[in-house]
Write a structure and sequence with these properties.
The relative contact order is 0.14. This protein is 35% helix and 23% strand. The chain has six helices and six strands. It is globular and about 45 Å long. It starts with a helix and ends in a 9-residue tail after the last strand. By secondary structure, the chain is of the alpha+beta class.
Length: 175
């Protein structure tokens, strides 16, 4: 019985307990508990200022919680977050792209950071997936907001992350 309990805990991909985040005296999150199993999809709904982005920033290891714990794949994000960053893909409010670089150059840059094997083939693959192969040589600053969002999605998928965090991924996208 104890072995199966330990196994089920290791199968959890994301587990958050009592997570809180304060900016000075102002709470952004208060006592959040959640569990997302490997392969599950979860959507957060709430009004502006409800803490959705704050939660995603903590899970992406871009911010530290004020209290509580967050584990991904059994790793404590407070102490082992940097080890896990290679496993996270993030699409944030801002595209997090370099405007003077081309579509392909952006993907190559981020691919080298993540040590993506067979980078040229993988970059072509994600450009095709998001419909930007025909714009591969164009500077990001010349792309529409929707195309920049598609490139952000390609960047987030490039290294085949085990956890994909999407913060308003449809913002600026055409149907």
């Amino acid at each position: 019985m104890a072995a199966s309990s330990a196994e089920s805990k290791n199968d959890r991909h994301v587990e958050v307990r009592g997570l809180s985040k304060y900016y000075g005296p102002r709470p952004a999150l208060r006592g959040v508990d959640l569990r997302i199993e490997r392969g599950e999809f979860m959507t957060l709904f709430g009004p502006n200022g409800a803490g959705k982005t704050t939660l995603l920033r903590i899970l992406a290891t871009l911010s530290r919680p004020s209290a509580g714990t967050a584990h991904i794949g059994g790793l404590d994000l407070r102490s082992q977050g940097p080890r896990f960053r290679r496993e996270i893909g993030l699409v944030a409010h801002e595209p997090l792209l370099y405007g003077t670089l081309s579509v392909a150059e952006n993907l190559h840059f981020f691919g080298r950071l993540y040590r993506v094997p067979e980078l040229e083939a993988r970059a072509r693959e994600v450009m095709e997936q998001v419909g930007l192969a025909h714009r591969r040589h164009d500077a990001v600053r010349t792309l529409s907001r929707g195309m920049q969002q598609r490139l952000s999605i390609a960047r987030a998928l490039l290294h085949r992350p085990s956890l994909l965090l999407l913060d308003e991924p449809y913002a600026g996208l055409d149907p």
